[in-house]
User: Fold this.
Amino acid sequence: MPGVVWPAWKAIVLITQIRNDIDTRNSEAKPFIWTATAEEILAKVRLVQTNIRKLVASNSK
Assistant:
């Protein structure tokens, strides 16, 4: 938010909470296992691109 000034202590508290959350998540990290093939992922990307193009075209009329 432009023009909003936080007190320094609030920023410090927020940064500390974020770092603690990251440390907790990293200590319990599990590897991500892809279940889709590259072709399946690319097919979905193409579908989304097509739908976005249609949406943009219909909104520009």
